[in-house]
Amino acid sequence: MKIIHMKNHCCSAIAALGLALIAMPSTAGEYYKWVDENGVSHFSERPPKEATAEKVKTSARPPTTEEVDAAESAEQEALVDEPKAKIGQDPARCTAEQNRLKQLSSGARIRMQNPDGGFYYLDERQIQQEMQKSRQAISESCE
User: Fold this and answer.
1) 3-state DSSP percent of the chain in helix, strand and coil, to 5
2) Interval 75-131: pLDDT, tens
3) pLDDT range class, residue 132, cuts 50, 70, 90
4) CA 138 to CA 97: how far, in whole Å?
5) Residues 9, 138, 77, 19, CA torsion sign
6) What is the signed CA dihedral for 96, 17, 44, 123, rounded to 10 degrees?
7) Who contacts 35 (Cβ-Cβ below 8 Å, separation ≥6)?
8) What is the pLDDT of residue 122?
9) Helix and strand tally (H, E) in the chain?
10) Within 13 Å, how many C-alpha atoms sit on residue 59's CB side?
11) In whole angstroms, what is the distance from residue 130 CA to residue 122 CA?
12) Cα 121 from Cα 17, distance rounded (Å)
């Protein structure tokens, strides 16, 4: 079982956020939503042939100067604060695991990636196991 962590990708994620904010105007377009026979919602740029889809309204705007500045500041803070971390303390991992625990606790379906690249959904027992792993990581990496 492979879990995707943001631990090693903090700076990359912040940079990607900044790029996403800058590229946002090009993402506006037509999207479609439909629900399959298992009750799972899907979104796509093309409507499916085998199901009735609803057109989803989207809008995009260029990022404000404040949003661009905030993304750049967050990236700089991540770079500056990293060397100050105590032994065992990992702010990026701490935040990632807190967010992961929040998602696991949300009651939403949780999708995981297999080593072969496929995806599957966790059952309640597996969700509880993953929550315990996140709690352990939080206790190891947070202040």
Assistant:
1) 50, 15, 35
2) 777 666 555 445 568 888 889 999 989 988 888 888 888 888 888 888 888 889 989
3) very high
4) 6
5) positive
6) 0
7) 41, 42, 51
8) 85
9) 4, 5
10) 1
11) 9
12) 27
Residue type, 43: F
pTM beyond 0.85: no
> Looking at this protein, which amino acid is placed at residue 89?
Q
Question: pLDDT tens, 4-56?
Answer: 544 445 556 565 655 555 555 444 567 788 888 888 888 788 888 877 888 87
Question: What's the CA dihedral at 116, 120, 125, 126 to 10 degrees?
Answer: 40
Q: What is the 3-state secondary structure (H, E, C) of 2-28?
A: ECCCCHHHHHHHHHHHHHHHHHHHHHC
b (16+ CB within 10 A) / e for 88-100: eebbbbbbbbbeb
Tell me the two tokens of residue 3: 């879990």
Residue 6 backbone dihedrals phi, psi, to 5 degrees: -90, 0
Q: What is residue 133's three-state secondary structure?
A: helix
Amino acid symbol at 142: C
Residue range 61-87, pLDDT digits in tens: 667 778 777 777 777 776 665 554 455
